[in-house]
Amino acid sequence: MMKSVVLLATLVCVSSAFPEFTVDVLRKELSEFGSGNFESNVVELAKTLKLNTLVELITEADIAEELTGDLTVFGPTDDAFEELPKGVMAAIKNDVQMLTDVLRYHILGTEVHFNQLKKNELLLPSLLKSTSVRINTYGELTTATGSPISKPDNIATNGVIHVVDRVMFPIPMNDMLTLVSNNANFSTLLKAIRVSGFADTLKGGPYTLFAPTNEAFDKLPPGTLGKLLGNKDELFKILSYHLVNGTVGIVEIPNYIAMMKSVVLLATLVCVSSAFPEFTVDVLRKELSEFGSGNFESNVVELAKTLNLNTLVELITEAGIAEELTGDLTVFGPTDDAFEELPKGVMAAIKNDVQMLTDVLRYHILGTKVHFNQLKKNELLLPSLLKSTSVRINTYGELTTATGSPISKPDNIATNGVIHVVDRVMFPIPMNDMLTLVSNNANFSTLLKAIRVSGFADTLKGGPYTLFAPTNEAFNKLPPGTLGKLLGNKDELFRILSYHLVNGTFFSAELKRVDKVKTTTTDDITIKISSGELSVNDKATVIIADAATTNGVAHVIDTVLLPPNVVFQLVMTNA
């Protein structure tokens, strides 16, 4: 935020105590940061930055002399001007007033550096009267009225230039409702807004509106529009579905496509006006094909084929459930490799039992469409098509799992739903709670006895938890007489069982990413992975992972875990 080259020169050499901090050193650093020519005004600097079209237009508009004081210029590249529709560029160049307005809109009357542009929805008054440049931040991306800032903070003697990759045109002169009112292509939309009482909503914001043209409404089935115009509440809901909180430019559209209903909506609603001929359906389809699946005329089964989920498609066909997959669905689609990784006996059992196969498939499907951005709440339970079961969503930093299965390719859009590709089959299906899981397995009879003796059963009814469940053989490894003594000491036994329990659901996908977890005793247990096997405290091996329950997950271990002080007491007792 230096004012001039004089200030730069005098402030840098602040003391002979810092002889290495010379002006040359600073110039080198700054040349990497932005422009290194600090004796140029904004117009001269624009030439240095090869913003040749911008300089040419400033000259044609004859506004160079008024560019004094501390300014901020959002300078479009030559490519940005090239990307304007030819008719738009010709209109701007042939109308000096329009040209001057466009240029002034790209300039602020104050010097604003990039680190001051980190507030989303910031409005900065431009040199064009009664207009503001809207700043939006989307993670690492910062835009000025939708134009990505690609090379910020190029310092001139009278301000700063931020190079942008798109011309900020058309200029936002009106609010959203006025934009709709002033365009004959939106006459049906305007009528819908007035009938539904949606006008007051559009006076707020900031919003992103996907505005359907008259032709878009004409594509509705015969009689539909009339019925909608006669149902104020339903019409309001539909219009609300076209409105997104916040300002989302085309550069950020791929991250928001999940809010769209289908390709019909995308194709008809996005091309909002002939003012934006470059924003074609083909452009959008290209963006979407990079975001997820590019085939938007397929149902979920057809899309699964496109995604090479061949085993899934084969099993759906064998189960004969393809015809019931109608409406808005969410499919957690395992890859072919995921099915291959199931134990052979398990896969054979599933394929040989049509009811089991149908149950497994239905558990992987939700009866509502849920996009990936709606799966960011940890421990979210979503009812599946299999009666009385839910898919458990867990978020571990950047990793999101569905009943322990990592979601590797989310938001593949079909005409009747969405497919999230997952890397593991969600099996076994969590039909029981943790206590019932233990009770129903003879290999846990000693664990069950310890749970009942200690009064730990009530704890296991809560959750969500992760239980490291020792088998009967694990208890048999304890020193002779130890188990009997523990069963006679309720409090100590309760503490040992608590040492096997962790708050929250930690499937193996997450355990492989951490080195320790905290148990309900507040003690840590260490987690290691070697040759694909998980170990706990360097003593117990996880022999069966990811036994999902209705209140968490259990991992079967081959050794009882003992807190440090208990180990000491056992050693002293058995000495």
Give a description of the structure.
The chain contains 28 helices and 23 strands. The chain has a 7-stranded mixed sheet with strand order 2-1-7-6-5-4-3. A 7-stranded mixed sheet has the order 11-10-16-15-14-13-12. It is of the alpha+beta class and 575 residues long. The chain is elongated. Mean pLDDT is 83; it is low at 1-36 and 250-295. A hairpin with a 3-residue loop joins β21 and β22 (540-549). The protein has 4 domains: 24-164, FAS1 domain, CATH 2.30.180.10; 176-291, FAS1 domain (Roll), CATH 2.30.180.10; 300-422, FAS1 domain (Roll), CATH 2.30.180; 434-573, Roll (FAS1 domain), CATH 2.30.180.10.
What is the C-alpha radius of gyration, as a whole number of Å? 32 Å
Number of separate strands: 23
Supply the number of structural domains.
Answer: 4
Average residue pLDDT? 83
Largest sheet: 7 strands, mixed
Inertia-based shape: elongated
Class per helix and strand makeup: alpha+beta
Fill in the CATH topology of the largest domain.
FAS1 domain
Helix content: 25-40%
Beta-strand content: 15-25%
Total number of helices: 28
